Input
Amino acid sequence: MVKLGKQARSVSIVGVGCTPFKNFEDHPETKGMSEGDAFGYAALEAIEDAGLAPRDIQYFYHGAANPFMIGDSLTPNMQVADWFGVRGLGSVHHSEACCTGYVALQEAVQAVASGTYDIVLSGAVDLAASLPVVNAPGCFRRDFPLEEMLPSIPMVYDRAYGRPLDSAFGISFDNWINKYRWEYDLSAEDIDAALNGMSKSLRRDAVLNPLAFYESDFDDAAKANGLEDADAFLSSMFNPKVTQYLRVTGFETKCDGAAALVVMPTEMAVARGYDHQPIDVLGTGAAAFEGATPDNEYMGTKEGARQVYELTGVSPDEIDLLFVNDFFLAGDIVAAEEVGYIPRGEAWQYARDGRCGFDGDKPINTHGGRCNFGHAHGASGVADIVEAVRQMRGTAGAAQMPNVPRTTFLRGFGGGQNIRCQILRTHE
Amino acid sequence: MLLTDMEPIVKRFYDGVAKGEYWGRKCVECGAIEFPPHLGCNACGCGHTEWVQLSGHGTLESFVVPGIQNDKPYLKAVEPYGYGKVKLDEGPEYTFVIFCGKKKVVKRLQERLYKDHEVIGVHAKPIERVTPLKPGSDQTVTWSELCFELDEVAEA
Output
């Protein structure tokens, strides 16, 4: 059983940056944006937020979920450095599919905690709403139709067994919520009401966030389709079930985006005297279970949470805000219980009753999550961290939690399936 | 490590499935079985396993019903199916395709499993798969996908 050791020194997040998560090709301001542009904007915003200049960065991490296919690149870290003024700086690219953004934080923290570097930038970018025009400059993108996307999804699963035996893809979406349903003797309608309630909270939060993909809520969608209200829309034929439990709104909205953060030793951050409080990274629990491993999301979440709670001594009742990578929406409900954020057997009711919005008593994904903020694959984990930091600073805008959170738990997930459980706390 | 110290484990597994033989790897220390087979033991973390032949029979431990997002037409062409965790009689667990014979069986299966706590037996039912060597190629590779079927389908 893994027991994490204490970091050699405390590390804090001192700067964050995030582009809008949109289809860049749909907006005149961003049409023609390349990966280098997008990573550069996010990195420079994070560096400025940290009160630094690019020359102060000593090393950087670059993350992307699928650079070969959607970035037409094998060496993306080499190809973005010049964009934010760090030519010649040491760097590394990493790719853990949709878990990339959480690994980005873990690796940057380890690089500083070890004493190797003092100031490290970690960012991720995926232009996931379109495909590159191969052999043309980076400003040329084309449509990314479903028939081209679907064959790439199974590549996150094991090529020896999980993929050819149809084991992983088939069960990934529903197996934990199905187990939950029967464990608490719930009906399919109960689960549907819970997921639709969660969708409403998340979409409302997303619409309040200018970076989010969606700019209209489900009431607007209802009106556009001649239906009475959001509830009618969410349970209608316009939002059909596409797995046993998940409707279309229970799946990610893929989009383009980049996000970045800057970390440094807490001692240095305090000495610099920021006007925003540094956010300490208390620790990261890690687990990985291949997609066909029975109950993989459950086992990974359980193990990652155990590690990080044991390391930090934080109690689940100290968590003020939870982020869950919810590209399968049901993850919000089951993970919230597994990490101890909501009492067992009750999260489905919290979701149904709208208690997980930014102003509810158990907020989850205050920017809207993967299905509503948007999912730029590898960049999304960093975007979660950006939103967490802004909430903890009290600068999250219209969806700011009324009680500024002090402690945030992130349940990172992705890549068939890699898990990271991370706890952030405002430095005091 | 020399060439003579190596063999492709994955190939022996699929060659076995094609012949109706189900090969796993048994841990030399704790006795747990890796199925499908791997080199190391994931039960105790030992690095040494050896071949063991399994019955191809087990019990269904979980079950989900596919929707259009996770449906596979080539599976539906065989018979109504779902996805589930199988516990082999010899102990190992893995997720497989479960053929159910009739649509109405699929619909009732979760209730039988989770509510009635019925013990539902399953047995190996490989299906042949033919895959183009590369997109658009006339050349193909043929292999056997290990799926399972409810015992009651074979008994009917």
